[in-house]
Amino acid sequence: MAAFGSWSCSFGVCIIILYIAATIPFSGAKEVDQQVVKKLRQNLTDSAKYDKNYQPLNSHSSDTVVNFTVYAKQLRYMAPEWNYIAISAFVCMHWIDEGLSWTPSEYDDMTEVTFGDSEVWVPTLSVHESYNQYGVRLFSAVKTDHHGNVVWCPLVTFGLRCQMDLRDYPYDEHRCAMNVSSWAHGYKVKLIGKLAKKTFDEQHPDWTGHFESMDTTEFQHPEQGADPVLRFTVFVKRNSPGYHFTVVLPCMAVSMLTLFIFWLPPSSGKKVTLGCASIIIILLIIQNLKHDLGDSIHTPRIVQYLGVTCVTVAVATLVSVLVLNMVKSPMVFRPPDFLVSLLGGVVGRVMFLCPLPAPRAADHEQLADATSPSGQAGH
């Protein structure tokens, strides 16, 4: 029994020792790996052998071929009044840099290593429509393997100029072009583009959009020749449901309010009040739309409609003033018979006109005075 107890105790001690050894990392091996990584990075980026400021020239090609893949991320900002759009996308670039190749057996069979994007050469991209030179990108590591295959996937935000046509506001749609090229130190960089993901993960509250297409073209530089360009087309559309209540319904209400001017009796002074109120409401709506429309190259149809409606209401109000003045004043001269018969027939019924009332006694007296020789002589 004593021997069995001693054996059990020894076995328990061994289990504890093995557990401690398994849970505590072997710092010596980790330190050796970090030293190898540090040595490899230093050897690859040694300024005597590698210059990060110059494009890598590979033995199998005179140009640096960069495979350019776009993954749509976010439609960040839209400002049609400024012709401005901001989008974010992961831009993954793949190229070969023989200066970043090595023999794995010399570095503990290490086949991959990462660098900061400021430590090695990366393509200098230029977006022709961008407000800044290269767009705003977040820091992203550059990964390379022992064959010199380099991968770089930064998240880039592009602020683009896009001429927007607002004639169909608030149901407008726009297509914006984004031309991407690279010209570094006098050497060509050949871009091969691909749209891997077209739909944005995060949309703007008032807009929806996606990358519509991508094609390859050339930009003719005045002195340096043809520059290969990747042309991306971004489609954006305004989310209109909210504008039904803020734009469309107020316009319909103003139109209905305008009709009431013609339905009121000719002797009602409220016709003028209603007309003036309609004009003020229309001007307030146009002023409110100015924030969304800005300096559009084309006049939106809804603004044209409101402008024509405002002029129509003004004319109707002026006619109401004249009619009201005629109703309130005595009838001195009776309208011509042909005009009375025209407006008293089908045309009058279509326009909801009442029959011309018979002249009053006071009107007869003023009419007789106006037509008598003595009355004419007095005038």
UniProtKB/TrEMBL annotation:
Domain Neurotransmitter-gated ion-channel transmembrane positions: 248-330
GO molecular function annotations of the record: extracellular ligand-gated monoatomic ion channel activity; transmembrane signaling receptor activity
Domain Neurotransmitter-gated ion-channel ligand-binding: 39-210
Signal peptide: 1-29
Keyword terms of this UniProt record: Membrane, Signal, Transmembrane, Transmembrane helix
Primary localization class, coarse: membrane
Cellular location(s): Membrane
Coiled coil: none
CDD domains to which the protein is assigned, alphabetical: LGIC_ECD_cation
Annotated TM spans: 243-265, 272-290, 302-326
InterPro entries, A to Z: Neur_chan_lig-bd (IPR006202), Neur_chan_lig-bd_sf (IPR036734), Neur_channel (IPR006201), Neuro-gated_channel_TM_sf (IPR036719), Neuro_actylchol_rec (IPR038050), Neurotrans-gated_channel_TM (IPR006029), Neurotransmitter_ion_chnl_CS (IPR018000)
Domain of life: Eukaryota
Membrane topology category: Multi-pass membrane protein
GO cellular component assignments: membrane
Pfam families linked: Neur_chan_LBD, Neur_chan_memb
Identification of the protein by name: Neurotransmitter-gated ion-channel ligand-binding domain-containing protein
Species annotation: Amblyomma maculatum (Gulf Coast tick)
